[in-house]
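Risk register update: the risk of archive-format incompatibility is retired. Evidence:
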Amino acid sequence: MNQSYSLDFKLEVLKAIDKDSLSLRAASVRFNIPDTGIIAKWKKDFADFGLVVLQSKTRGRPKTMNENKRKKRKSNKPITREEEPLLETEALRCENELLKKL
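Archived output:
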C-alpha cells in the first residue's frame, strides 16, 4: 500500500527516535508505519540532505496541459457560401503540393 506521509509526521517520527532512543522497529510500531525501511530512508535522507528532501513530491504527469500547448479547436459555426470555395481551393492546393513532393 502506497501511503504518503506529511513533513510534520516524518519530523515527529525522527524526533521521537532521537529523543526516546527508539529503534526503527519500535518507531514503526508506535507510529503505525508498515516498513522500517521507510523510516531508515527518512533518517538517511535527513542526515545527508536536510529538511528539503523530506517534503512530499508530486508524482506522475501534471493533471492539465498548459494553455499554450493546446491546439485551437475549430468553431462549430457553419461555413458560409463565400468561405466554401476558398476552403476547397486551399485543400486542393495543399494536395497538389503534397503530390509534387512525392
